[in-house]
Design goal:
By secondary structure, this protein is an alpha/beta fold. The strands form seven sheets. Strands 3-2-1-5-15-14 form a six-stranded mixed β-sheet, sandwiched between helices. It has a six-stranded mixed β-sheet with strand order 18-19-17-16-22-23, with helices on one face.
Length: 426
């Protein structure tokens, strides 16, 4: 029996597994973003996150005292710093932080294209390497500090300060790693002014990181990799489309260096060919808010987005009725356009249908890049939340891509991914 901890951006989940059978799952909202004078800052109280995780683990252990291991995955790219004396940690600087956006050109020049190519993640403002530079460019650290991934910080706290480690999937998410050398890129560390950061030891997923109340700790695994691994054998001959707030396309690969895509570390010698910055639920929010605002204008009271989604799902079958929305509206590559409006086709149902058609059109182009690498792919695995349940979107994706679209029955793929790793270990 094991505990599986999934530290997401919105929720922290704790599940109990016997083999790969989930016996219990509890979910709590993550601590809120700290108030900041700058909108670009996205920081969260790291101590509050650790306290929440420990509280949920202790609660589960009261009912399942026979747990033999604790496995953990977490959101990627962000970081926490602690001092060597064990004082208060820095806030958790999230992957959603945008403070480095004005500095990206300078950081790219400092790091160089070869280091960026080898880091195992897309170069962006939310990487630890970039957000650290933006904060400390004019205020370098005056003393050595321990650097932690978010999951690594939880392992550090749970182990009583003995585990200063992280998994390669998390190391690569920071922008300070060299995936081809399987080691930290010390030159990148120097060029972003992070010489005084003591980087964690990178461990395999099979190595015990430490112990909490005598129970071995394992992790920390990147939440994306854990989710894909939770699909099990279904990933064979498949492209995986994870649809949440945004979208991620990926495909396990045994052949590194075969494309210009991100190559994220995975398991058993494989990498995940990955395309991020894809459209997802957030990109339809404008349409849903518009419908809600129209309803509020008539009713005189606010209409929540969730209520609009539920009404559309329970209403008549979706039909775009000739309406067309450009995919560029979602990708940020151009102006949003709603075209082919007729005398009778501008309805809430047709707006949503056209939006879902536009998502499918955008993914058609992205899927083609994967098919050029692996022509034998025959399926598109659709994972995630609310959007994946829309039969209209599934049909549009199948029509556009020519692939069989499959929506796995079980949810919480990341938790099941941790359970699968545990089952292989034990």
């Amino acid at each position: 029996m094991i505990l599986a901890i999934d530290v997401g951006s919105t929720y922290l989940k704790c599940a109990v597994f016997e083999g790969e059978q989930m016996l219990e799952k509890k979910s709590r909202p993550m601590p809120s973003r700290l108030p900041a004078g700058e909108d670009a800052r996205f920081e969260v109280d790291a101590t509050a996150i650790a306290a929440l995780a420990q509280e949920m683990i202790d609660d589960a252990l009261m009912r399942f005292p026979g747990a033999g291991a604790i496995y953990l995955d977490s959101q990627m790219h962000g970081y926490v710093m602690t001092d060597l004396a064990g004082g208060e940690p820095s806030p958790y600087v999230s992957w959603q932080d945008r403070l480095a956006e004005p500095e990206l050109s300078e950081i790219a020049l400092r790091i160089g294209p070869e280091a960026i190519r080898r880091m195992g993640t897309r170069f962006k403002a939310g990487l630890c390497a970039c957000s650290f530079f933006a904060r400390h460019k004019g205020a370098p650290l005056g003393e050595d500090r321990l650097l932690h991934t978010l999951g690594g910080y939880l392992l550090y706290r749970l182990s009583g300060g003995t585990a200063h480690v992280c998994h390669e999937s998390m190391a690569a998410s920071l922008g300070l790693y060299d995936c081809e050398a399987h080691d930290w890129n010390r030159e990148t560390q120097r060029r972003v002014g992070a010489e005084r950061l003591m980087l964690p030891r990178v461990i395999p997923h099979t190595e015990v990181a430490g112990a909490y109340r005598g129970i071995p700790l394992y992790g920390d695994i990147g939440d994306h990799q854990a989710s894909v691994y939770g699909l099990g054998e279904d990933t064979a001959n498949s492209i995986i489309l994870t649809l949440g707030t945004a979208g991620i396309l990926c495909m396990p690969s045994n052949r590194p260096g075969q494309s210009e895509m991100e190559e994220r570390p995975y398991f058993h010698g494989q990498s995940l060919l990955t395309k991020t910055r894809q459209p997802g639920g957030r990109t339809l929010d404008l349409l849903v808010r518009f419908v809600g605002d129209c309803a509020a204008l008539v009713t005189g009271g606010p209409v929540e987005a969730q209520a609009v989604w539920e009404a559309l799902q329970a209403g008549p079958p979706l039909d775009a009725a000739g309406l067309h929305i450009t995919p560029e509206y979602f990708s940020g590559g151009g102006a949003g356009v709603i075209a082919s409006i007729g005398a009778h086709n501008l309805t809430p149902q047709s707006l949503l249908a056209a939006g879902l058609d536009a998502l499918a059109e955008a993914y058609e182009k992205a899927v083609q890049e994967f098919l050029e690498i692996e022509p034998k792919v025959s399926r598109l695995l659709l994972c995630g939340g609310r959007l994946t349940k829309w039969g209209y979107l599934q049909q549009a994706l199948a029509r556009r891509t020519g692939l069989s679209v499959v929506c796995p029955a079980r949810q919480d793929e990341a938790l099941y991914g941790l359970a699968r790793l545990a089952r292989e270990r034990f």
